[in-house]
From TrEMBL:
Pfam families: MFS_1
Domain Major facilitator superfamily (MFS) profile: 20-434
PROSITE patterns, A to Z: MFS
Topological relation to the membrane, as annotated: Multi-pass membrane protein
Name of the molecule in the record: Predicted arabinose efflux permease, MFS family
GO molecular function, one term: transmembrane transporter activity
Main location: membrane
Keyword entries, A-Z: Membrane, Transmembrane, Transmembrane helix, Transport
Compartments where found: Membrane
Transmembrane segments: 18-38, 58-80, 87-106, 145-168, 188-210, 246-270, 282-304, 316-334, 340-358, 379-399, 411-431
GO cellular component: membrane
Length: 447
């Protein structure tokens, strides 16, 4: 009986691979803390900068999503050719410093530019991570790996609410805080420094401990060198499977619209309708996001793997349909009830099912495209998803509140209207997408 080498044991246990997932998840936690902390501080920032809901939505949604989206493609092209851990590390350091710069913003324009910097840095993380994970794990483990990585977004979102609530509670009796070298600052400005700067340490951890995995399924050119498809070739691949990617990109983007709508505007809803203090809102929503959203991502990844083992080749898209059906009623109803406990009881399942597309949309993109196109195709999805889900979705809620209802207290009705619209389009597109995805897999010889 032959003994196994240490390398074989490591490969069987996937110990190093799960370490990479964990570190990348940690980076994702910090990314969501840095992008989400703004939502809890809506009232003091609006007051100090004299902003409307629409202007605040541009800071929270458009400023971040615009450059997050458009920088994703060129950064992903680099990730398909060069060291993915180095690209991720640079991105983490960049967005962490940009978050700290939000703390020294004096007006709308300065805050807008700092939020753009956050978006540019975060654009480096997910496409490169998705590409690495697809090279590290077999298809039957990919759903769980992506789900664990994706859990980081909601751990980060929950921690952002908890940290924000704690800092607001800690500094609620102070008009300003003396900061060395920077002078007197408002409590919300100090919060950006507290959540932003530690991310630089995460960047160092990635740069020093993660190596770029060997790329699987690479095509060689006539000279025997790795063939690196251009962005034009990636678009040709998308054109061949245009029906599949149309349903996937738009279906999951409208799904994301519901998720980002709730993450962005639920704090304002609870503060305005039920009179909760920002600190209480942060504690409550932090617990909901940590429990409901993280379990939703994990269950979504488990569901993909379970459906795949049952023989459903369209498992990622099918899991998205199941999640959207489960989300429909609670996501629309939680703002329309009169009791706080009932609203939170509806918000929890809404958040749980709203988290399903995190592993579902990602797994589909890593299964169908060739290896050297995965980061680019993922980046294009993130471009569309963030422009529609985060940029357009959060702004539409503000426009409905400012223009249609003309009353900040009616933000709950704006959330319900937008969610009803987004969920209807999600189901329509993803149900059609199941059939198109199966046909694309047959076309590529993957079934």
């Amino acid at each position: 009986m032959t003994s196994k080498t240490p390398t074989e044991v490591t490969r069987k246990s996937y110990a190093y691979e799960w370490y990479v997932v964990t570190v990348c998840m940690l980076a994702y936690i910090f990314s969501f803390i840095d992008r989400q902390i703004l939502a809890l501080m809506i009232e003091p920032i609006k007051h100090d900068m004299q902003l409307s809901d629409t202007q605040f939505s541009l800071l929270h949604g458009l400023a971040f999503s615009l450059f997050y989206a458009f920088m994703g493609m060129p950064i992903a092209l680099l990730a398909d050719k060069f060291s993915r851990p180095k690209i991720i590390a640079i991105g983490v350091a960049f967005w962490s410093l940009a978050t700290a710069l939000c703390g020294v913003s004096k007006n709308f324009l300065q805050m807008f530019m700092a939020r753009i910097g956050v978006g540019i840095g975060e654009a480096a993380l997910s496409p490169a991570t998705y590409s690495m994970l697809s090279d590290m794990f077999p298809r039957e483990k990919l759903g769980r790996a992506v789900a664990i990585y994706s859990i980081g977004s909601f751990i980060g979102g929950g921690v952002a609410f908890l940290i924000g609530g704690y800092v607001i509670d800690l500094l609620k009796n102070l008009d300003s805080v003396a900061v060395p070298l920077l002078g007197e600052m408002r409590p919300w400005q100090v919060t950006f420094f507290l959540v932003g700067l530690p991310g630089v340490l995460v960047a160092l951890l990635i740069a020093l401990t993660i190596r770029d995995p060997a790329r699987k399924g690479l095509k060689l050119d006539a000279a025997g060198k790795v063939h690196a498809p251009s962005m034009k070739q990636a678009f040709k691949f998308l054109a061949v499977h245009r029906k599949t990617f149309f349903c996937h990109y738009l279906g999951f983007s409208f799904y994301a619209m519901t998720l980002f709508c709730m993450l962005s505007w639920t704090p304002a809803f609870y503060m305005r309708k039920f009179g909760l203090a920002p600190s209480d809102t942060g504690y409550m929503l932090g617990i909901v996001v940590l429990l409901a959203n993280t379990s939703g991502v994990f269950c979504g990844g488990w569901l993909i793997d379970w459906l795949a083992k049952k023989g459903y080749s369209d498992a990622p898209i099918r899991a998205g349909v199941i999640g959207a059906i489960g989300m429909a009623v609670p996501a629309i109803a939680f703002t329309q009830v009169s009791e706080l406990w009932m609203s939170v009881a509806l918000l929890a399942p809404a958040m749980f099912f709203a988290s399903f597309p995190m592993p579902a949309s990602t797994a589909a993109m890593q299964i169908l495209p060739p290896n050297q196109m995965r980061a680019q195709i993922s980046a294009l999805f993130l471009l569309i998803s963030n422009l529609i889900g985060l940029g357009l979705g959060t702004t539409l809620v503000a426009l409905l509140t400012d223009r249609l209802f003309q009353n900040p207290a009616m933000v709950g009705s704006s959330i319900s209207l937008l969610n009803a619209f987004a969920i209807a389009f999600t189901l329509l597109l993803l149900i059609k997408g199941c059939r198109h995805f199966r046909e694309s897999l047959k076309h590529e010889g993957l079934t």
